[in-house]
């Protein structure tokens, strides 16, 4: 049975993990940074060293293949990272893909469909996220590009121009979905489920949907001393009540895949001796079922109205982000389950609770994801870690999955 060369894969992981290394032992490779550029050059060299043709499209997505023709079985992930993130997120998917393609090429296996490696641009969101996969799938429109900026205000157009790329051309990176037989992405779980259940392989069924609201409570600014307690219209009390009641409602009434998070809370006028007149919070729901997401969103909006009236406040709810859950292809899931079974690995069907390029590609083509365990569920941190044996098992499951999908 064909297996990956784990020593070679491990060397690649260490070499790529050294690019953008931080003093804390993490990696910082935001898209289009110097470290990202160094990682891009390194990856292209590895692709060419493997005897494949390397190519960069107009969105900066990197490809590698050695056979011509279509539709292709596309495999990969991303090599950019969050600031001071880990060395496995994204990189593991690209490097296991590279290793699988090298092995299949070395063995000279005849396949019905060509294999193609991909590393998508800005998955992590230095410039908002999914720039590469949005362009590749035709979602990115030229008119949006001038407004895409990072947190410092730098336009992606200027960041790309520094490297001789014309961002406005990015939509030409579109690939007709008919040319994609399937897309497979191996990724660390970034959560605790596989480790806790001692199961080495996760087979992603759905990538969660996200509904994010900006909620503003409005009351009245008053003197902190002279205004009696019963006369106050304190906007922060409404916000605080919603934070607690929203959490309780989702725990009591949601599913095991329901999440609610308030990540930003801002008060105005934010003066120690003035009763807050306004409180703004972000309220983010995640769910794998579109029906449950809709239900929890409705309950949350009702809850916001209820607490506002209980505290004598006005409230407005604005939708900031609305992403439907994306079910992944049953055919790819079945191939992963079968591949794991042939290798004697237990596998678990599970939702992905974080965003991935597979959710973008999965809207237009058959997509699947393989999860490998994350120690303590840690990710987006220098503490992110996946054990060697889990990396090797995951890579071998990916290898067999690709052989199956490319043969049929
Ligand atoms: Zn990732």
CATH fourth-tier homologous superfamily of the largest domain: Zn peptidases
**Subunit arrangement of the protein:** single chain
What is the total domain count? Answer: 2
Supply the CATH class of the largest domain. Answer: Alpha Beta
The molecules bound to the chains, other than polymers, are: zinc ion
At a glance:
The chain has 2 domains: 6-207 and 325-407, Aminopeptidase (3-Layer(aba) Sandwich); 209-323, Alpha-Beta Plaits (2-Layer Sandwich), CATH 3.30.70.360. It has helices at 6-17, 34-49, 91-107, 131-136, 156-161, 193-197, 235-253, 290-310, 330-342, 357-361, 388-407, and strands at residues 53-56, 62-65, 72-78, 115-120, 180-188, 201-207, 209-218, 222-223, 259-261, 265-268, 274-275, 278-287, 314-323, 326-327, 347-352, 367-372. It is of the alpha+beta class.
Q: How would you characterize the overall build of this protein?
A:
This protein is an alpha+beta fold. It has 2 domains: about 5-205 and about 325-405, Zn peptidases (Aminopeptidase, 3-Layer(aba) Sandwich), CATH 3.40.630.10; about 210-325, 2-Layer Sandwich (Alpha-Beta Plaits). Helices cover about 35% and strands about 25% of the residues. The chain is built from 11 helices and 16 strands. The chain has helices at about 5-15, 35-50, 90-105, 130-135, 155-160, 195, 235-255, 290-310, 330-340, 355-360, 390-405, and strands at about 55, 60-65, 70-80, 115-120, 180-190, 200-205, 210-220, 220-225, 260, 265-270, 275, 280-285, 315-325, 325, 345-350, 365-370. The strands form 3 sheets. Strands 1, 2, 3, 4, 5, 6, 14, 15 and 16 form a 9-stranded mixed sheet that branches. Strands 7, 9, 10, 12 and 13 form a 5-stranded antiparallel sheet that branches. Helix 3 crosses helix 11 and helix 7 (about 235-255) runs antiparallel to helix 8. The chain is globular and about 80 Å long. The model has no long low-confidence stretch (mean pLDDT about 95). The protein binds zinc ion. Zinc ion (ZN) binds near residues 89, 90, 123 and 187.
């Amino acid at each position: 049975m064909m297996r990956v060369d784990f020593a070679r894969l491990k060397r690649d992981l260490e070499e790529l993990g050294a690019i953008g290394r931080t003093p804390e032992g993490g990696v910082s490779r935001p898209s289009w940074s110097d470290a990202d550029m160094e990682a891009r050059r390194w990856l292209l060299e590895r692709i060419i060293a493997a005897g494949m043709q390397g190519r960069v499209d107009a969105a900066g997505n990197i490809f590698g293949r050695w056979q011509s023709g279509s539709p292709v079985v596309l495999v990969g992930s991303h090599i950019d990272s969050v600031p001071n993130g880990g060395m496995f997120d994204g990189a593991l998917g690209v490097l296991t893909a590279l290793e699988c393609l090298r092995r299949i090429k070395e063995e000279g296996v005849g396949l019905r469909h060509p294999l193609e490696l991909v590393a998508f641009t800005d998955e992590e969101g230095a410039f908002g996220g999914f720039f590469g996969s949005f362009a590749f799938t035709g979602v990115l429109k030229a008119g949006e590009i001038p407004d895409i900026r990072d947190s410092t205000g730098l336009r992606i157009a200027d960041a790309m121009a520094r490297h001789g790329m014309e961002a406005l051309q990015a939509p030409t990176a579109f690939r007709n979905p008919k040319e994609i037989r399937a897309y497979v992405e191996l990724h660390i779980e970034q959560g605790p489920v596989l480790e806790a259940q001692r199961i080495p392989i996760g087979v992603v069924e759905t990538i969660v949907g996200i509904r994010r609201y900006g909620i503003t409570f409005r009351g009245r600014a008053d003197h902190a001393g002279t205004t009696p307690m019963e006369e106050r219209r304190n906007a922060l009390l409404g916000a605080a009540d919603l934070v607690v009641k929203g959490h309780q409602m989702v725990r009591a009434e949601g599913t095991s895949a329901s999440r609610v998070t308030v990540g930003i809370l801002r008060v105005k006028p934010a003066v120690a001796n003035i009763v807050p007149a306004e409180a703004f919070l972000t309220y983010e729901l995640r769910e794998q079922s579109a029906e449950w997401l809709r239900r929890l969103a409705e309950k949350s909006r009702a809850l916001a109205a209820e607490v506002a009236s209980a505290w004598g406040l006005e409230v407005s709810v604005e939708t900031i982000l609305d992403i439907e859950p994306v079910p992944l292809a049953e055919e790819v899931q079945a191939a992963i389950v079968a591949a794991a079974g042939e290798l004697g690995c237990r596998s678990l069907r599970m939702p992905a609770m974080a965003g991935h390029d597979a959710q973008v590609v999965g809207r237009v083509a058959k997509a699947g994801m393989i999860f490998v365990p994350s120690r303590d569920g840690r990710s987006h941190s220098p503490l992110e870690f996946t054990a060697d044996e889990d990396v090797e098992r995951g890579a071998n499951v990916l290898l067999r999955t690709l052989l199956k999908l490319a043969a049929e």
